[in-house]
Each structure stands twice: as structure tokens, then as C-alpha cells.
Amino acid sequence: xxxxxNSSKTILKTIKNYGPLTCKDISKITNFNIPKxxxxxxxxxxxxxxxxxxxxxxxxxxxxxxQIKSDMSFFIGINIDSENIRIILVDINxxxxxKLKIKTEPDSxxxxxxxxxxxxxEELTNVLGININKISGIGLSTPSAINKKTGKxxxxxxxxxxxxxxxxxxxxxxxxxxxxxxxxxxxxxAEKKFGIARxxxxxxxxxxxxxxxSCIFLNNxxxxxxxxxxxxxxxxxxxxxxxxxxxxxxxxxxNIVSGKSLIDQAKVFIxxxxxxxxHRMTYNNIENLxxxxxxxxxxxxxxxxxxxxxxxxxxxxxxxxxxLNVLGINVVIIGGGLSITGPIFFNSIYDSIKLRTxxxxxxxxxLLKTSxxxxxxxxxxxxxxxxxxxxxxxxxxxx
Length: 399
Ligand SMILES: [Zn+2]
Hints:
This protein has helices at about 5-20, 25-30, 35-45, 110-125, 165-175, 185-195, 255, 260-270, 280, 290-300, 305-325, 345-355, 360, 375-395, and strands at about 50-55, 65-70, 75-80, 85-90, 95-105, 135-140, 145, 150-155, 160-165, 180, 205-210, 210-220, 220, 330-335, 365-370. By secondary structure, it is α/β, with parallel strands linked by helices. β4 and β5 (about 95-105) form a beta hairpin. The model has no long low-confidence stretch (mean pLDDT about 90). α11 packs parallel to α12. About 40% of the residues are buried. It contains 14 helices and 15 strands. The strands form 4 sheets. Strands 5-4-3-6-10 form a 5-stranded mixed sheet. Strands 13-12-11-14-15 form a 5-stranded mixed sheet, sandwiched between helices. A 3-stranded antiparallel sheet has the order 7-8-9. It has 3 domains: about 5-70, Winged helix-like DNA-binding domain superfamily/Winged helix DNA-binding domain (Arc Repressor Mutant, subunit A, Orthogonal Bundle), CATH 1.10.10; about 75-190 and about 375-395, ATPase, nucleotide binding domain (Nucleotidyltransferase, domain 5, 2-Layer Sandwich); about 195-370, 2-Layer Sandwich (Nucleotidyltransferase, domain 5). The longest helix has 25 residues, at about 305-325. Bound molecules: zinc ion. Zinc ion binds next to loops. Zinc ion binds near residues 235, 252 and 254.
């Protein structure tokens, strides 16, 4: 039986995108009949491009699952934020094999930061006996405005960078292909591939940390405009004559709801001598104030901390409802530092979305917290690079 090369590529791509899969699953997705799938899969097994793995099924003889040969290539995922650099090592199926964290030191400059990362790569691979030469690419994310086409960071207010060609600098440093993405888009991709978003084709993802990043999955695809952006609502105008934002506009959502904004608001109350336990909780050093502390104070009944969280949740919920009404979708996933906040913030967001979203859009509203750990953005960045690698592999290889 002779099958076209395209059929083999379709099978490989299906296994890569949806695997591990049984031959029956592959048949369903590709519309190839099972005998054809079996022959093609056997050929790929013979050529050492895929491997069989056991299913976790408890009873009876488990059907074999097929996945891309996991030691075919390895990849590094990196997320750089203003405090930490998180680095992970993954195989081609996106399985995390090792991870570590170092301090960012943003003032030391981008070249120094890339240098610090490169010193850690062997540490990450050596302990597993993986030769560093088996690394095929790097995915790099940061919470910045990025032009993915050029690899340039347009501006990163949290890291203090602007107009830096991060892709070029990183490729020169590591001598490997590098994919650049914003951290919220990277997180959303990891969430779609391995997290709670697996079962949703359409959702709005928000990363709230020091700032706000957001993106949209529509019909199982991360929306990207022709200019290389999409879904950002952190700089939508909430207060026309509000404070000047780092982006140059006034009254942006990020200026009112982000972690930094909540801390700034709490500081104003403390400095005005308001009746709050937050000052005592910082051991009388206002610089110790953080979002966790505001949440703890609110949970202990502090009315000011409660009001800060509740008002922020209301404003964020209003802004989210605008997006849901425009897109006609009803799943929202929140990640980032502020996703650890307790029920006061989340309930306030939920109530406000429910109140403001058109009833026929918001009736089955799902407001979910991210299921990823703090390495989620690094994982997503690696997944983007794996996609690029795989596309190039399929184009070049005779399969
Ligand atoms: Zn702004």
C-alpha cells in the first residue's frame, strides 16, 4: 500500500497537536480509516519519529497511545519578569523535565540578563544527562509590548526596556532559534494545551500582576492581528481625566486595577492616617506592603483593604463584560500574581460581570483561576518555539 508523504505529515501533525492519541483517535481527527492510520503510524514508528506510551487506564488491556518521540529534541522556555527569571527544560511533547529560577536584576541590562540565563542552561540539562547540543530552540516571554514579527520589545514598563530587539540579542547569545512572546499570550497557550482551557474553544485570558496583559482564544486559535497583536485591554480608558499611565494615555485600566495600583491605593490610605490594620501588618514599614498583605487584611475584616479589593474587582468586571459583550463569549481565565487573591476580589469581579454582561451571553459565565504554576508563561513560550521547530521540520524533512 502506498500513501502520500502528505498523509504521513498529516498524521505527525495530528499527533503533535492533539497527542498522545490512539490510532482510533487519529482516525477520527484525520478522517483516514483505521487500517490506513495503522500502516502510517507503523511507518513513523519504524522511522523512530513517534513512540508508544501506556494509557493510565485501570482495567483491561490498555490501548497504546502514540506520541512524538520524546527525545527527538529538547527546548528551553524562559519568562523574564521584573523580579524573577523562570527557566524550564521540556521535551518536544511539552513535558517539563526540569526548572529553575533566578533573580532578574533588570537594572543590570539585557545583555547581562541573557548572560546569567546562559550560565544556567547547562545546569538545567546536565542533571538529566541531556547534552546541551540536543536543545533545538528557545521560547522567551516577558510582560512587554512585543512585535512578534520583528522580535522587538516596543516597551516594557515593568522592566524599563524599550525598542530592544530581544529575539536578535537572544539568538546571538544562545546560537539557537528564539521565539518571543508576551507572557500573557504564552500563559494562555500553556493553559489551552495543558490546563483548564483544554476544553474551551473560546476564552478571554487575563494576566494580572504588576500590570495587566490579556489575549483572546477564538475557535481554538490565539487571536493575532495582522500587525502581530490582539486582545490587550490593560490600556483601555476607564477614567477620561485619570492619572497618566506609563503608556502615555490617562486613566487606563492597568492604572486602576493592577497589583501596583492596589498597593499604591493602600499606601495613600495609610499615609492619610486612615483606620486600617495594614500599617501594623507591614511592621510599620510601608514598603513591605504587597497584594497578599492587602488580601490578608481584608480577610481579617479591615474595611479599607476590603474596599480596595471590592472596588478593583468591580472595575475589572465592568471592563471584562465589555469584552464579553463584543465577542459574545463567556469564559474568562485569570492568571498572574493577583490570581492568588481570595474570594473578595473574585466575587466582586464575578458579580460585576454578571450585572453588566448581556444576559444571553453571560448566562453560563465561567470565571476561572489559572491552573498553571508560576512556570506557566515559560512553558507557553517553549510551546510556541516547539510549534515553529515542528513546522520547519515538516517542511524540510522527507517523511
Ligand atoms: Zn496605559
